[in-house]
Amino acid sequence: MVFLTFIRSALNQGPDKYWRIQQQLRFSWHFYGRKRNCYKIGMRYVFKALRYGVSGRKDKLKNMRELWYRRINAGSEEHGLEGKMFLEGLARSEIQLDRKILSSLAIYEPRTFKSLCEVSKNTLKEHNLPFHEKHINSRQNLLKDLINNEKSVEI
Amino acid sequence: MAHYRVQQWSTFARTWWLFDARWQCPWISARTIIPYLQGTKKPIYHPLSDTGDHVIVINTRLIAMKNERWITFKHIHDSRYRPKGVIEKRAWQIHAEEPTKIFEKAVYYSMDKNLLRRNLMARLHLFPDESVPEDLLKNVSDCIRQPMLAPKRLDEYTEEDRRNFPKLFDWPKDFVLDDGFRTKKQIEFQEP
To answer: Is the ipTM of this complex over 0.90?
Structure first.
């Protein structure tokens, strides 16, 4: 706003006092004590809460990203591939899928996720990248005597 | 997608795993077991949802440790009663009394320090021998792979294998063999 004279700027005191207070009360309705209803006391706590909101948005994405990666790692280890190399194999084969999408594929569409694992394995082999193919859990010879009765197996 | 609802049931089921602790380090094998208890091996994992599995561990009496870890490692219990409230016990001392104790503590301490920890430990079933009750063994569907390769003892080799093992020369009868434990200074002193 441009004020051509000094008088105009002195007259302009910002928004109406009533609406300014109402705006703050909308943010402080869930507080406890006098900072909930008093304007001057609640001012500091509202500003701090808004500042936490800004930093919280970054932390939320960081936490979600960690969870997505953990889910992708669990899904790819079922097919004998580490999650780190699985993502590199997809990047080299130019499949541009998010971690968010990949984690949801691992849960709801395991067959498509399996095919993506095979694609990344083949590209890693073409590029001669050393991917540590983890052992899938299988029955050992030591424990055959204990679980030789296959009829007793129940999940 | 209502007709696929039945297929989802097995994803949320608790599977039962079997782990053989024969000739295994308890702290390394704890790291392999914990993801199964915690449920991080499943793609449906979420910290608030309870997705852990059961694990049965057998042969905890036959766990292995490093050089002198049986003597040096000790568990400390402090009851906060000052005159003789602290109890220190060596690993071999505890293992003689309770053969499942060291494996249990190794898993308990290397787990994340949450309120969930006690509930996850309830799903770990420890047995000193191979004798497991059949009610538990019925549920087992698969076994966890051992992290360490169990070496073969010298007693288990036959005499023919020992004779045929390639060697350049025979030791003289008066020669004293080293037990292989050397400090860094001794190795530096000998090698250059």
So the answer is: no
